[in-house]
Structure formats: structure tokens, C-alpha cells
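lol forgot to send this yesterday, sorry. C-alpha cells for the thing we talked abt
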């Protein structure tokens, strides 16, 4: 059974986070020091999580809710450098003030996942919620 790296200890709901499910509140994970929400996302600069360690999980879902239209994109990888993608990237249109969830359940294991949020409008977009769920089954 996969075990999430302890480097994310404070950001998972369970201190040990032994599968089959792991959840991370990406809003808290990426908010500036002392803040409770992500910094606003400008139109010209998408927010990028960078590579998030996924420890061989097989299913993933990511969701976001923000106050402007945009695009949510997710890609899985075998390697941290992003040279070995697992399947194709998936994307969905963000509708202002409506939650969107993207999920992949093809059961191919992956070690890293990268998520981007692009704002397609001005002014800067505010993110109300941003979360990731990993499933081992």
C-alpha cells in the first residue's frame, strides 16, 4: 500500500496518511506565509503547483473554485523531472464561482502530479478552494 512522503506531513488530513486515500488541501499548502488563501492569480501568469509527490497512487482528483473563468489542467508523471508522462494531460474550463473537479481513474500508477490554474479574465482571480485527492485502488 502506498505511503505518502513525510515531507507533506502537515498538509494531509491524517498524520500517517497510509492509503488507500490521501487528501491535501492545496489552498493551505500554497498560500503565502500567514495567509489562509492563495495569492490572486493574474491573467498573464498561471498558478503552477510544480511536481507534487504521489507515491504510486493509481487514481487522482483535483478541484478548484475561483471567482473568474479560467482553465484547470492536470498531468501525471513517473519521474520528478516531468519527462515520463502517464497518459495525456486533462483540462477543464473553470466557470466563475462554480467548482470544477477533474479526475483520472485509469488505474495506471504514477509518482508525481502537476496542476495548473489559468485565469482567462481580468482582474486577478481569487481562489476559494483548491484540493487534491489520491486513491490507491
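and heres what i got for the seq, position by position
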Amino acid at each position: 500500500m502506498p505511503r505518502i512522503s513525510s515531507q507533506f506531513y502537515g498538509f494531509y488530513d491524517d498524520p500517517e496518511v497510509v492509503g488507500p486515500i490521501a487528501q491535501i488541501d492545496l489552498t493551505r499548502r500554497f498560500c503565502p506565509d500567514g495567509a489562509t488563501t492563495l495569492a490572486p492569480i493574474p491573467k498573464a501568469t498561471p498558478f503552477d503547483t510544480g511536481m507534487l509527490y504521489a507515491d504510486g497512487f493509481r487514481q487522482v482528483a483535483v478541484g478548484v473554485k475561483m471567482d473568474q473563468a479560467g482553465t484547470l489542467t492536470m498531468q501525471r508523471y513517473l519521474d520528478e523531472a516531468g519527462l515520463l508522462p502517464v497518459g495525456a494531460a486533462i483540462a477543464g474550463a473553470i466557470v466563475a464561482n462554480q467548482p470544477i473537479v477533474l479526475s483520472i481513474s485509469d488505474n495506471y500508477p504514477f509518482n508525481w502530479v502537476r496542476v495548473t490554474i489559468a485565469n482567462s479574465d481580468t482582474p486577478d482571480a481569487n481562489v476559494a478552494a483548491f484540493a487534491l485527492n489520491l486513491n490507491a485502488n
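The first strand starts at residue 21 and ends at 25. anyway ping me if u want another try
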